[in-house]
Amino acid sequence: MMMAAEMRSPTLLERLPAVRGRYTENAALDRITWFKVGGPAEVMFRPADEEDLIQFMTEKPADVPLTVIGVGSNSLIRDGGIPGVVVRLGRGLAGITVDGTEITAGASALDVNVAITARAAGLAGLEFLSGIPGTLGGALRMNAGAFDAEMKDVTLSARALDDSGRVHDLSPAELGFSYRHCDVAEDWIFLSARLGGTPGDTAEIARRMARIRAQRETSQPVRTATGGSTFANPPGRKAWRLIDQAGCRGLNRGGAMVSEKHCNFLINTGNATAADLEGLGEEVRRRVFEHSGVALEWEIRRLGVSVGGPLRDSGRTSS
Residues 100-116, buried b or exposed e (16+ Cβ, 10 A)? Predict the structure, then answer.
């Protein structure tokens, strides 16, 4: 008779390829996302660098689910956590270099650091990135924008990794940017991008960035546990205004609340669950539709499974 140990199925960790980075089982995700909620990752992988990530993607079992997270600024991790492997992009893909009027930045470079680098190099046109929380990879994935500019305005090309470990160089046409969207397959991982600026006065660039920072702090709940802008603006409309007109400012469920300061932000008042936040968001959508006939679309990526089982509309890649 076979011993029990011999009959045991291999764990997910035991099935994964050898890497130079780090694996962590049952890794807490509520500590790294801005909402501060959600269950754990079955396994978290932090690649040492781009080559380490490519090797992992080339050798990992095809049936293992994969989710990519940057700093979790626009992520809502459900309370049941994320099955499979969560790839946490970090310092190994955060490099930023300048060549003339071009900046090349890794996918895990913070958007604000890209803007700061551009300022130091006297390159204008990238100031808007200082007002976008998160990383460049997430900004590419959702064609992030703010303050009258978006990624499609500055992206010259991008590099992405497909699910078999092949690297692709993508032109703006292949990226297919549209409002808060790109056409790149959801199971591809952005590695880096080339961004274009224009020569400008460093002092004026700094003043524009300061105005962006002041405007954010005045109009948004930047010092609370939030996930940024919750819903995309419908064509020709402002999501916050529709939410306000539907009477949702200050609406709450459990520990979740619609911000009084900017009602397109959901906030964790201290003891919210992911279910509180997602349920509140769905209630906002219901009330807005009843009031105006507009169906708001989530801008925040909702990832993983609920405690009771999977929910719809899970995303894959986030900032």
Answer: ebebbbbbbbbbbbbbb
299 is a catalytic site residue: yes
User: Is it the case that residue 309 has pLDDT exceeding 70?
Assistant: no
Bridge-based pairing state of the strands 96-99 and 149-150? unpaired
- Distance between CA 257 and CA 60 in Å, rounded? 40
Helix (H, G, I), strand (E, B) or coil at 281: helix
Active site residue 259: no
3-class secondary structure, 127: helix
pTM above threshold 0.70: yes
The one catalytic residue in 46, 78, 141, 180 is 180
Domains within the chain, CATH numbers bracketed: 12-91 (3.30.43.10), 93-205 (3.30.465.10), 221-303 (3.90.78.10)
Per residue in 64-78, pLDDT (tens digit) is 999 999 888 889 999
Q: What is the pLDDT of residue 35?
A: 95
Please state, in angstroms and as integers, the Cα–Cα distance from residue 3 to each residue in 6, 13, 15, 41, 285, following that order.
5, 22, 21, 30, 55
- What's the CA gap between 157 and 155, in Å, rounded? 6
Whether the per-residue pLDDT at 266 is higher than 70: the answer is yes
Whole-angstrom Cα distance, residue 265 to residue 284?
Answer: 11
| Average pLDDT, rounded, for the chain | 92
Classify burial at 171, counting beta carbons within 10 Å of its beta carbon; exposed 0-12, middle 13-18, buried 19 or more: exposed
Give the active site residue among 229, 259, 318, 319: 229
Lateral strand order in the sheet of 102-106: 96-99, 102-106, 189-196, 155-161, 167-170
Identify the residue whose tokens are 């009084």: 260
Q: Catalytic residue among 299, 301, 302, 318, which?
A: 299
Other beta carbons less than 10 A from residue 40's beta carbon: 20
